[in-house]
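On clarity, I found the account of how folds are encoded harder to follow than it need be. Since the whole study asks how a given chain folds, the encoding of that fold should be made plain. For illustration, here is how one protein appears when written out as sequence plus structure tokens:
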Amino acid sequence: MSLGLSQPGGKLPLFDKQGKKVNERTVRSCLRHGLVEPWFSNPVKPNWIICKLTDLGRRSLKTKNSS
């Protein structure tokens, strides 16, 4: 999730730094907890969930990184 802090609009990358697709269960859990929100639908890959950080998600990451 922290990669979203450096992305335009807080967009969460679909792949991690090693090129592995981010686990859908992780994304859905973040959605349920209000840390991310859907950004838009991808017509080419409709099953991919494209999200961006919410204000709560940003605050949570900043709090975690400052501890």
Notes: The longest strand covers residues 36-40. Residues 17 and 36 are 19 Å apart (CA to CA). Residues 2-66 form one domain. The chain has a mean pLDDT of 90.
